[in-house]
Design brief:
The chain is α/β, with parallel strands linked by helices and 340 residues long. The chain has two domains: 2-294, Alpha/Beta hydrolase fold, catalytic domain (Rossmann fold); 295-340. The chain is 46% helix and 9% strand. It contains ten helices and five strands; from the N terminus they run αβααβαβααβαβααα. Helix 3 (96-107) packs across helix 4 and helix 7 runs antiparallel to helix 10 (296-339). The longest helix is centred in the last third of the chain and has 44 residues, at 296-339. It starts with a helix and ends with a helix.
Length: 340
């Protein structure tokens, strides 16, 4: 009987030791960051994010011939496929883009992956995660990502004073005309959260209120959709300055004050979820985690405020259009009078 008890204890110790070893091996997997750029971006963008400290981890990526002298500290690579001209090879985050993204993620199943996606690249990633589960992904950063491609088209035509009451169908036809790889009636990026199984996946959503292409309500829509889909770790970082293509730095690629705040918030997010972070950057800003986790009531209030702001912009554009039309009519009258 004593021998049986001893054997049982040894077996129990062996099982516990094995489990601990498995956990240890899993934790020792190296961190990498996959960078997925947007429609107007390029793989070279990864160097700006790496240089300014937005991305931490090990570097395993491909370096093109003209980029060998640029220092790296992170793995970042091109996930987006088919975004180069001609336009009929642009899939706007679906189809071939999604398949390429899933293929890349499968190649790094033995790593702990952080995905850093910008603009349309975020659409690609969300579509990939909707279709397939990737347990190696430890965090997802979404910067300037649209919640709906049709809403982006509507915002663009409105910015160019072509706001003539477009329907969703007519806007989709316009998108399809320019980008024939686009699929009609595609599910929107915000709908992807309901299909992603890992609700523990940390999400960091960053957006500028001055984004001229993707309005800031896209970020709010993504945040709201993730919270309603029962994601437990969702953060929203709103910047007061920065354009769609330069949210954290200026045209000379120099980090702005808002970019510094964005970077500090991002590293606080990294540290909270046990991801590679820079202690020096953490000390540059007080704890902003509570500020980045608004409740749904606060989000709805922000929706109302931004809707009022957008309506005011539309009225200003309408007034401007009227003045331009009136000036053209007066000019035409003067010209024809002189011709007589």
């Amino acid at each position: 009987m004593k021998k049986i008890i001893i054997n049982f204890c040894l077996l129990f110790y062996f099982i516990c030791s094995s489990e601990q070893e498995i956990v240890k091996i899993s934790d020792d997997k190296p961190f990498i960051t996959l960078f997925c750029h947007g429609l107007q971006g390029s793989p070279r963008e990864r160097f700006y994010y790496s240089r300014h400290g937005f991305i931490e981890g090990n570097y395993f990526g491909r370096i093109d011939a003209d980029e060998k002298n640029i220092p790296e500290n992170s793995f970042v690579d091109r996930v987006h496929d088919g975004i180069n001209f001609p336009e009929n090879h642009i899939y706007l985050g679906s189809s071939n883009d999604t398949e390429q993204c899933k293929k890349t993620l499968r190649e790094y199943k033995d790593y702990q992956v952080i995905i850093f996606a910008t603009s349309c690249g975020g659409v690609t990633v969300l579509n990939a995660l909707r279709e397939e589960e990737f347990p190696q992904i430890k965090a997802l950063v979404l910067e300037s990502v649209p919640h709906d491609m049709v809403a982006v088209a509507e915002n663009i035509v409105s910015n160019y004073n072509f706001d003539f009451g477009w329907t969703r169908t007519s806007l989709e036809r316009m998108i399809k005309f320019w980008y024939t790889g686009y699929r009609y009636n595609s599910q929107t990026p915000e709908q992807a959260f309901a299909h992603i199984k890992n609700k523990q996946l940390p999400l960091f959503i960053a957006h500028s209120v001055r984004d001229e292409i993707v309005p800031v309500r896209s970020a709010l829509s993504l945040y709201r959709a993730a919270k309603k889909a029962d994601f437990e770790h969702v953060y929203y970082c709103q910047l007061e300055n920065g354009t769609h293509d330069h949210i954290g730095w200026d045209n000379d690629k120099k980090l702005t004050n808002q970019g510094g705040i964005y970077r500090a918030c991002l590293h606080q997010f990294y540290k909270k979820h046990l991801l590679p972070s820079d202690e020096k950057l953490l000390s540059k800003l007080d704890n902003c985690i509570p500020v980045m986790t608004p409740n749904l009531s606060e989000v709805e209030l922000l929706f109302v405020l931004y809707a009022l702001h957008e309506n005011r912009l539309k009225r200003n554009r309408s007034r401007t259009n009227f003045l331009i039309l009136y000036a053209c009519m007066i000019s035409s009258y003067v010209i024809f009078s002189l011709m007589k």
